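Quick one:
INPUT:
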C-alpha cells in the first residue's frame, strides 16, 4: 500500500471491526469505500441484475508463496455461492481458467482466464496467431532460464497457453531478478504487452485483449447493467479505467497511482462488501441472458 492511509470514520461495517477502520477520502487518490462518498457510490450501482466482477489472486484469495496452494476461504465461498444465485458474477483472473476453477468452490456465471483473454468469443485467425506467438516465447524463455544468472535462482515460468508469467517471489534478490526478467522479455518478445504484478512479469499477445476489454464485453452482453469490479494489482488497471457513473471500480489496498475509483483496506472488507450486496439484492434467480459461446483452452 503506497503512502500513509488515513481513513474517515464511517460507522461499523457488517462483519468488520470498526475500531480498526478510519479513512479520509481524497479525491485525488481514490475514495475509501466506507466513507460517506464511497457508500453513496455503492448505493448508486447496487441494482437488481447488476454485474459483479472480481479478480482472483489478491482479491478472492490471498497472494501466496506457492500459487498452487491458493484457494478461497470456505466462508467466502458460501457468500459467493449466494451472490451468484442472485446476480451475474464474473471472475476475471490472470490464471488459466482451468487452474482457477477448482480453487473457487462456487460456480460463477463467467470465468475468464489469462487476464480476460480466455473465455470470450474471438476471431479464429487471431486466436491461432496468439497461441503460436506464446509458444515461441515459451521455448525461448525456457532456454534463457536454463542458463540464467544466480539472481534468477527460484524464478520460474508459468505457461498458461494464452499468456506467460515469469514469477520471482522465491528469488532472494527480487529487484535484480525483476530487472533481468524484464530484459529477457524485451529480447524474446519485444511485441508482447508486459504487465508487472506482485513479484510476477506477465507477457500477453498484442491485441489479444485484457481485463478491461473482457469486462466491457460482459457489460454489453448483459445490456450494460450497473457494474462492480474489484481487483488488487496492475493487471486490473484496464478494468479500473472503465469507471463511469454506472461502473464502480474498487481496489483492494490503497494505491495513489491506481485508476480505481474506490479502495478497501484489505480482504476483510471484501467480506463486508459481499454481505452488503446480499442484504440489498433480491433473492430472485439471476438473469437468463445466455452465456457467450466460449472457446475452450487448446481448441
Amino acid at each position: 500500500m503506497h503512502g500513509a492511509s488515513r481513513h474517515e470514520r464511517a460507522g461499523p461495517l457488517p462483519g468488520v471491526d470498526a475500531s480498526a477502520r478510519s479513512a479520509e477520502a481524497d479525491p485525488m487518490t481514490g475514495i475509501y469505500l466506507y466513507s460517506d462518498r464511497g457508500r453513496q457510490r455503492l448505493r448508486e450501482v447496487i441494482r437488481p441484475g447488476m454485474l459483479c466482477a472480481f479478480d482472483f489472486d489478491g482479491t478472492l484469495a490471498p497472494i501466496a508463496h506457492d500459487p498452487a496452494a491458493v484457494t478461497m476461504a470456505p466462508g467466502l465461498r458460501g457468500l459467493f455461492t449466494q451472490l451468484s444465485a442472485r446476480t451475474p458474477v464474473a471472475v476475471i483472473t490472470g490464471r488459466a481458467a482451468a487452474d482457477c476453477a477448482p480453487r473457487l468452490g462456487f460456480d460463477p456465471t463467467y470465468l475468464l482466464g489469462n487476464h480476460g483473454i480466455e473465455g470470450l468469443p474471438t476471431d479464429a485467425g487471431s486466436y491461432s496467431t496468439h497461441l503460436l506467438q506464446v509458444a515461441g516465447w515459451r521455448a525461448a524463455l525456457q532456454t534463457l532460464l536454463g542458463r540464467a544468472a544466480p539472481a534468477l535462482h527460484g524464478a520460474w515460468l508459468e505457461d498458461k497457453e494464452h499468456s506467460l508469467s515469469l514469477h520471482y517471489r522465491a528469488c532472494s534478490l527480487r529487484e535484480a531478478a525483476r530487472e533481468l526478467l524484464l530484459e529477457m522479455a524485451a529480447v524474446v518478445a519485444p511485441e508482447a504487452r508486459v504487465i508487472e504484478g506482485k513479484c510476477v512479469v506477465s507477457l500477453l499477445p498484442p491485441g489479444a485483449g485484457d481485463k478491461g476489454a473482457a469486462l466491457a464485453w460482459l457489460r454489453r452482453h448483459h445490456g450494460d447493467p450497473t457494474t462492480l469490479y474489484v481487483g488488487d494489482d496492475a493487471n486490473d488497471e484496464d478494468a479500473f479505467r472503465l469507471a463511469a457513473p454506472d461502473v464502480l471500480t474498487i481496489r483492494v489496498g490503497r494505491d495513489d497511482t491506481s485508476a480505481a475509483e474506490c479502495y478497501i483496506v484489505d480482504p476483510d472488507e471484501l467480506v463486508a462488501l459481499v454481505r452488503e450486496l446480499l442484504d440489498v439484492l433480491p433473492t430472485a434467480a439471476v438473469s437468463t441472458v445466455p452465456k457467450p459461446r466460449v472457446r475452450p483452452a487448446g481448441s
